[in-house]
Amino acid sequence: MRRTTFPRIFPALALMAGLPLPLSLAKAETSPPAYIAHAELERRYGLPYSRFTMIEGARIHYADQGKGPVIVLLHGSSGSLRTYDRVVPRLVDSGYRVIRYDEPNMGLSGPAPQALYDRPLYPVVVLEGMLAKLNVRSAIFVGVSSGGAAAFFFAARHPQQVERLVLSNTPMGRADGKGMTLSRDLARELALSTPGQGRKSKIYRPLSYWQAFFRFFTGEPDRVSPALLTQYYDMNRREPVPDRLAMVEALDDAPGVAAALDAVTAPTLLLWGARDPVLPPESAAGLKQALHNTQVSMLMMPDVGHYPPLEVPERFADSVLAYLQSVTPVRPKAPPPSQR
After folding, report:
1. Is 189 among the domain residues?
2. Is 146 among the domain residues?
3. Cα(136)–Cα(138) distance, rounded to whole angstroms?
4. Sheet with 268-273, edge to edge strand ranges
5. Which of 105, 157, 194, 200 pairs as cysteine with 26 (C-beta 3.0–4.6 A)?
6. Is 262 helix (H, G, I), strand (E, B) or coil?
7. What distance in Å separates the CA atoms of residue 83 and residue 68, rounded to the nearest whole number?
């Protein structure tokens, strides 16, 4: 897939973030926008343990369940904390406190003031604020897609607060998506539903777009339920804000990404869906190579696509638990044998 005409933005992550594509791929919308009110989203998708707090001027929806060592779950572009609905019970039952939240203007979180959007890596700023609100001094961080990128950028800034990292199908830069060919259905849906007026366009994606999206990005499309499709459709037809490009632009800064990955010292698991059309196993190998200063483990799921916690949540949870409890139960205290 050739690059977009956007400066510094690679198409694969732009697609997953629900951002406009170049004018050459865009056509007029076939139906008027059917935006959904925020109150209606809360009514439909609020959880018994939903909570709200203000962080940097944004009303953030979060959930905090269980007791024990803290695991923070970070969702990807166009997603929500409900990405982990079927992962959380296994983690809580195994003795962990699990925190997850919706990024600003995603899920049930409100938009942020422009001052926050203007800050570099504002998703990391929100993560810092959430941990401070909940008095979390250290945690295990699990992120899928761009949520994994937020996790490794946070780990670079705050190594003392990161016990372990689990990065699932996480992009690391411009090469991601190079050569990707969209399915015919998804390419058609993109063309029909993208207005093409640039970064501040209001985008309305019909249900048929999300059907084509998940047929393309999953290893086994039958794993995507009608309820999940409806949830993504609803949560991504809220009244949009001008800009959600912070993580896209941060990942397009190759020196900045390299420096962040070089600064990661927490033991890291790359838990990867190998049928990902954007980030195939070669992308995981590149990410492993870039994590120079830590112990990296890698587990491939050969039948899974870009969103493992959505496709195989129980297996995803069990893999995380096995890594935490068996592969890296403690940090080594002694120096390496060659330095003793």
Report:
1. no
2. yes
3. 6
4. 51-55, 58-65, 97-101, 70-74, 139-144, 162-168, 268-273, 296-301
5. 194
6. helix
7. 22
- 127/154 Cα distance (integer angstroms): 8
Picking from 281, 282, 269, the residue whose alpha carbon sits closest to that of residue 321 is 269
Q: Cβ atoms within 10 A of the Cβ of 100, count?
A: 26
Position 19 confidence tier, pLDDT thresholds 50, 70, 90: low
Can you give the three-state secondary structure of 188-252, one letter per residue?
A: HHHHHHCCCCCCCCCCCCCHHHHHHHHHHHCCCHHHCCHHHHHHHHHHCCECCCCCCCHHHHHHC
Q: Express as a percent the part of the chain with pLDDT over 70.
A: 83
242-to-19, 105, 238, 293 alpha-carbon distances in Å: 10, 11, 13, 37
| pLDDT tens sequence across 24-35 | 444 444 455 578
Total domains present in the chain? 1
Does any domain span residue 297? yes
For residues 244-272, give the mean pLDDT. Answer: 88
Pair 45, 233: CB distance under 8 Å: no
Burial of 22 (0-12, 13-18, 19+ CB in 10 A): middle
Does the reported pTM lie above 0.85?
A: yes
**For 20-24, 50-54, 106-110, 174-178, which range has the lowest pLDDT when averaged over its residues?**
20-24
Distances (CA, A) of 191 to 140, 188, 270: 40, 5, 33
Provide the 10 A C-beta neighbour count for residue 332.
Answer: 9
pLDDT category of residue 330 using cuts at 50, 70 and 90: confident
What is the phi/psi pair of residue 184, to 5°?
-60, -40
